[in-house]
Structure formats: C-alpha cells, structure tokens
Specification:
single chain, Rossmann fold, ATP hydrolysis activity, MacB-like_ATP-bd
C-alpha cells in the first residue's frame, strides 16, 4: 500500500550558490501493507518527522521514489498532493491541532465543509462519528473544556471523518499521561481492527510501538538492526 524506495533527503543551508547540504535521511526503504500498523521509532532528531513529511507530500525526496496505493507520488506538485491527501490521508498530531474557537462538532465537521459536503450529510456523518468516539455528550464543548484524552479523540474523529484509507500519526500520545495513552492506543487498535485503516505512527515511545505489526528503528537518518545501519 505504501512503498518508500531508496529515499534520500537533505536540507540546504547557507546563501544561494554557496549552500551546504545536510543529509537527514539516507537510503530509506519501507513497505507498509494495507490494514497494517507500522511504527517508525527513534529519538528526537533521528529523521522521523522528515520521513512522515515525505510520505504526506509536504516535502520532496532529494532522491528515491514513493508509491502510495499504486500511484507514484514522487513528483506530484502541491495541487496534486492537496487533492491526494484529501482523498487518502487522515492526520493525528501530538498537540491535537484543534481550532480553539470551534466546538467538538465543528472541529470534526471542518474537513467535510472543506470538501464541499452538503449540510444534511455533514450532520449525519458528524453525529455518527461523535457516537463512534464516545463524545456525543461533548459536541458543544470547546477544546479547552475537554481533557487531553478527549481532545485527542476529537483529533482522531476529525482524521476519520473523510473515511481515509491511511492515517499518519505524529507522536499521537506525546501530550498524554500513561493512563490516557493506553486508552488512545487501545482505540487506535480498535479502529485498525474494525475498519482496516492503515496506520503509520512515528514515536520515540516503546509503549506506543508495542501496538505495531511492523517496527522500523531510525537512527541518524538510517534504519538500524541490532544497532547497525542496514538497507531495508
């Protein structure tokens, strides 16, 4: 479902014509099957977020190929990527990324509005989603009126509302206490089992990685095995 093939990525720093290239990812390859939970595990600065940004099209690889659901997205322009993300991806963030001035209902509804879904259908889908995530009694609450676990459930509901085939999660429990983390991880496993959604999760936390079907350990921009750099 997701193929990352021999991908390199470098950032350029310095004045134009005199830039220095700083390598971030070095010959990265991974393969994620449909309905799988894959975790990319590594310390801060290992390149995890860069890899997630490459898979989601917010940056382009310096070298290599990315194929998602049979489509080579490596050379997509921003317009193509925007359309592709809307059709295929949902996103979960460490800091929830909820809009403070919108209620639970409105935060979940937002992607449907952006896609042009009619008001009646939006209402049906949002109310159904609120029940699925156990927040039907909090639809009128603002983010600052919710607990951390509830806010992350709103974030997950918003990610699910367009029925994506893939969810990309960036440290999804990083802002939660251990009890709430366990609750959110259990919910992710339930969604994966019941709806067959493919998850790619980046994390530094072994507890989060324990739910994965496949783990990739990233160190200094390369995957490792037994502490040694390997080509996957």
């Amino acid at each position: 479902m997701i193929e990352v093939k021999n991908v390199f990525h470098s950032f350029k720093i310095g004045k134009k014509g005199r830039e220095n290239e700083i390598p971030v990812l070095k010959n990265i390859s991974l393969s994620v099957k449909k309905g799988e939970i894959a975790c990319v595990v590594g310390r801060s600065g290992s390149g995890k977020s860069t890899l997630l940004n490459l898979i989601s099209g917010y940056i382009s690889p310096t070298k290599g190929q990315i194929v998602i659901e049979g489509t080579d997205v490596t050379s997509f322009n921003e317009k193509e990527w925007a359309r592709f993300r809307l059709e295929h991806f949902g996103f979960i963030f460490q800091s929830f990324q909820l809009i403070p001035g919108l209620t639970t209902y409105e935060n979940i509804e937002l992607p449907l509005s952006l896609k042009g879904v009619g008001k009646a259908e939006r209402k049906t889908r949002v109310e159904d989603m609120l029940k699925r995530v156990g927040l039907e009694n909090h639809s009128g609450h603002y983010p600052n009126e919710l607990s951390g676990g509830q806010q992350q459930r709103v974030s997950i509901a918003r990610a699910l509302i367009l029925n994506p085939s893939i969810i990309l999660a960036d440290e999804p429990t990083g802002s939660l206490d251990s009890e709430t983390e366990e609750e959110v991880l259990s919910f992710i496993k339930q969604l994966n089992r019941e709806r067959g959604i493919t998850f790619i999760i980046i994390t530094h936390d072994d507890e989060v990685a324990s739910i994965a079907d496949t783990k990739y350990h990233l160190h200094d921009g390369a995957f490792t095995k037994g502490g040694e750099s390997v080509e996957v």
